[in-house]
């Protein structure tokens, strides 16, 4: 045990963020949808996927030993529920036995398992392995790889750097997990920023020079994130935060699914709880109904042959929807109240409330906000599934040499959402970094021994605001061995807490007499994969990427060959005049040449070939010819 000897605080602001030569993209890896953006000069481009959509469902499926991502994975979910993976973000950086994981697991149709308290997805069979385990990081990296490749194909160069957004409530382990996921996907995380702050940055581009205080309400598919900010053209500064974990659009969907299951049992006496295909079908329709009820008073659900020849036909009113989700609306209000109370502001000091995230479209949510902020302007027209991504891209551009030349640069001031300290004698909390400290920074404090002739001390690290560590949360510990052996109070042990640009904490302890030291990066605990494990996952991801690219090339070549062969039949020739026929031949020949030129181009990924296939199909459809 150690105790406070005397305190010397050394404040060291860490070096400025490194400026990158290469382009940096912004990625919002969301619970339900993800997007990738890039700032080109003054414009932010939301990079569409091969199907032309600006957002990609954060869904991965395994079918015939092939990974499917996004819309395609979503569309086959009903027939393949055991191998369709969603809501993965809610598991990021968590231990298997964490209460939030247990809660999330109840709503998943695929199988989770654990090894050393790490979470894995178990599939019955993959290639020659049965069963096969995939880490949560590896599955999320597949989504991230798709987004990276979209950007690479669009920009015509290999993308290596990214600014990632994360929920405001992410702890160090979850932030580190996000960095690891990006690394597996072949991306270097230049910086992590919170999702509501990214939304504010996207909004800030239209703000005037006058300083104002805004309340950012970011209600997505998996979390509710709130940030109160002081904002001006030239800077953006944290005031307070609020977060609701496992509070998002998915939770509204799950409540609807439970209701539908009850209705089916009441009317048919059929219990479908164990029928994964039926549950998946209900989940899809529940999400659609929720979205419809944001603009209409009633939604109709029709599912043909849901189970045993039973057709499910049901209607639900907005009033009933609000009644079913009363507990979620109550939690929403409590989260708003908490962030507001922490800000120490009067309501009339908050100029504007910015709504972001799909769940903020729910009328009852908007009503709660309007009733709470009677003095503030509520900004609803900024609601966009890509707003967070846009903010990440704007911030990313600031970290490039090209962005440094811009006149629209701003200073971003981040503050810790909680206090950090260590345990001293009497199970008391000695705070080293107080709540709402600006970071990056380092703070040091001197400690001594509590007993005579100690040869080592245990450094137990906590976060929280209570004077007793019993009421706070332990986030790490390590031993400092080889300290000066002397009477208590004689040794001098300097403990330094450092928080980097990403808000990740590193703790270092050194005996000033013996110079023995030890440290711990809190995020790199026993539950995070080792460097060797990450390298293996990088290799696995690269192998998957190569296989998928070859498959995409093969699909494109097959379509080209079949189209060319069918076009040359007399049946098709008779439908076309010579000009149309020559154009179609030229179209397919040009596409074939494009494949030959690009199949060995490392900058053109799977998504590029999928887009070429989609474009070719669309061009042929325009001619109203069935090839």
Automatic annotation (TrEMBL):
> Which residues constitute the signal peptide according to the record?
1-15
Can you tell which superkingdom this protein's organism belongs to? Eukaryota
Enumerate the Pfam families for this protein. Answer: HSP70
The coiled-coil segments of this chain are 599-626
Q: Which UniProt keywords apply?
A: ATP-binding, Coiled coil, Nucleotide-binding, Signal
Q: Cite a single GO MF annotation.
A: ATP-dependent protein folding chaperone
Q: Which family does it belong to?
A: Belongs to the heat shock protein 70 family.
Name of the protein this chain belongs to = Heat shock protein 70
